[in-house]
Amino acid sequence: MRLPADMSVWLTAAVGLAVLAYAYIRTFSPYFFDDCVSILRSLTLGYRLIKYKTCKPFYSILDCFLDAVRRHPSKVFIHFEGRAYSYGEVDRQSNKVARALQVEARLREGDSVALFLPNEPSFVWTWLGLAKLGCPAALLNFNIRSKSLLHCFSCCGAKVLVASPELLDAVEEVLPTLREQGIRVFLLSGSCSLEGVTPLADKIAEASDKPLSPELRAKVHIRSTALYIYTSGTTGLPKAAVVTHERVWAASFVQAACGTTAADIFYINLPLYHSAGFLIGMAGGIERGLTLVLKRKFSASQFWDDCRKHNVTVMQYIGETLRYLCNTPKKENEKNHKVRIAIGNGVRSDVWTEFLNRFGNIKVRELYAATEGNIGFINYTSKIGAVGRINFVHRFFFPYTLIKFDIEKEEPIRNSEGLCIEADIGETGLLVGKITHRSPFVGYAGNKQQTEKKRLYDVLKKGDQYFNTGDLLCFDHDNFVYFQDRVGDTFRWKGENVATSEVADILTASHCISEANVYGVKVEGHEGRIGMAAITLTEGEVFDSADVYKQVVSYLPAYARPRFLRIQPSMEMTGTFKMKKVKLVEEGFSPALIEDPLYFLDPEQKTYVPLKEEIYSAIASGKIKL
Fold first, then answer.
1. Which of 134, 194, 465, 579 would bridge 517 by S-S if both were Cys, CB 3.0 to 4.6 A apart?
2. What is the DSSP letter of 578?
3. DSSP-assigned states of every residue in 117-155
4. SS3 for 92?
């Protein structure tokens, strides 16, 4: 059928106009379509969150898992070390764990339970079992020991500890204190000779795998505590961030916001005790109904073989992950994989570029977020280096701003009216998120002082409240967000936050150290900042390198151990008696620039050795691995 002449002209004009509009948008608004897709996804996910907030009975991520079990019980939920666990199998195992703990630990709805477990399937079904009982779980970092372990355990109010057999030595170290406090300790093994530790494996094996009644968790609602996840801060000891069910849902949506689907296979090689591995990875996988590949710990040499073996389509990373992958020897089959999306944070622009050049056109979705925070960003474009992008929908639902910040005084700059001053476009400022009913800040368990320190008042108008992220960011003229640095007493190394005062406490426990000023310094070619400490010696003492080494190795995880020490005659203080760090950070650890004695933690010699020029050069050239 032929079109009338005038209609044909109009149709041709419309097509031409559409082509011109598309070309104009691609040229002058290259991220227009990315913005539209992101806004549409955000609105859809926002609607779902509102629905979950209001529906009765409350619908949790556990209920989402149970729905997935009903839809596809035989679908693989977890691949782990050559074994596949289906949704149905994990569900049944979690029922058995729940029933065993219900009887042996006498758990009731609302009781907090601490999990001291490595990355393995038992972590997942133990948490699910606790969720079925309505019990919040405290996710303990399996690297911590002694004082830190006891602190993390006590601040969440838990009366029960569930631990892995491989962590028994760490449990034994604090067992006398736990027993004094009436804490019940359970081990996921068949036997244990330690008095005060109850083996649980046999009890789990004997328990029924039948479903548990939802009435056991009938009082759980959207604002109930679901988890305690630990984050380092200025207190010197980890803080237990209170993660509500609302927060679990919001974090689980990150995968959906990045474009994953139920057909994807998601690779988790980050620790499940962190929000990235647990909330974005595991909970996000449940929300999508996909298959997870779980790894005990990251291995650069095995990474791509794992991806090929399991047909992985989505991977997680931290900046160090991608750098390690880029440092592996080049192979011919590097682009022979099915990974299409990488979700994570902390990757440098040069590593990002090299990663894409070597391993193919993978959509890197760089994030900015904090476990306890009320504001986050996703770079849903392919813009290298940005941690996010500003759009009006995101800012409407989660109000935030950048304010001018005095790095030396470590406080916001205020005007004559006592209000904060917004940073200009292109200017580095402190990111703060407005505390509202839609974007709350819950804070830290058992630590009102630290919770209050994260609140900032009278920011843009009198009486308002904002969450202080403690991070310096920058917004550019194209609406991209860039991470600049951290402020305060925390630095990041090997993907872990390190609290400087905790490290200082360990150092000053050595008989020869009087004071310790701990900070992070940049190392060429590495993400984050590595630990360094300026120390003063106790009067009449000489530096005892062996004793200091013993202290840090015994009481600090590897990533928190200061690799460099600088012995000073005295500490330089601010007017409010805080140790000055800015100059020390800038001076770094070069023996050519610093007259003070410098020492380097040498793991091969198991002591601190004088930092000579040749050691410094070997570090700079990469011959010495940090």
1. 579
2. P
3. --SSHHHHHHHHHHHHTT--EEE--TT--HHHHHHHHHH
4. helix
Identical fold between 88-220 and 490-621: no
- Dist CA 520 CA 275 (whole Å): 23
Q: Could you tell me which of 477, 255, 254, 483 has the C-alpha nearest to residue 348? A: 483
CATH class of 88-220: alpha beta
183 to 117, 172, 188, 261: CA distances (angstroms): 17, 13, 16, 42
Given a cut of 90, whether residue 336 has pLDDT beyond it is yes
Residue 528: pLDDT band (50, 70, 90) is confident
Name which of 200, 242, 17, 21 is nearest 103 in CA terms: 200
Angle between helix 146-155 and helix 545-555 axes, rounded to 10 deg:
30
Greater model confidence, 486 or 216? 216
Is residue 229 scored above 50 in pLDDT? yes
Q: How far apart are CA 432 and CA 457, in angstroms?
A: 11
DSSP letters of 223-268? TSEEEEEEE--TTSS-EEEEEEHHHHHHHHHHHHHTT--TT-EEEE
Contact 485, 473 (CB under 8 A): no
- 474 strand-pairing partners: 482
Tokens coding 324: 């390690």
What is the domain partition of the chain in residue ranges? 88-220, 490-621
CA distances from 541 to 74, 262, 513, 514, 537 (A): 66, 63, 8, 10, 6
- pLDDT: which is higher, 473 or 502: 473
Strand partners, 142: none
Q: What share of the chain is helix, strand, coil (3-state, %, to 5)?
A: 35, 25, 40
Task: Give the mean model confidence (pLDDT) for residues 306-317.
Answer: 97
**Cβ distance 313 to 265 under 8 Å?**
yes
Superfamily (CATH H level) for 490-621: ANL, C-terminal domain (3.30.300.30)
* Mean pLDDT score of the chain: 91
| Tens digits of residue pLDDT in 79-132 | 999 999 999 999 999 999 999 999 999 999 999 999 999 999 999 999 999 999
87, 68 contact by CB (below 8 A) = yes
Average pLDDT over residues 331-356: 94
What count of other Cβ atoms lies within 10 Å of the Cβ of residue 259? 17
Give bridge partners of residue 491 from the DSSP assignment: 498
- pLDDT per position as a tens digit, 233-283: 444 578 899 999 999 999 999 999 999 999 999 999 999 999 999 999 999
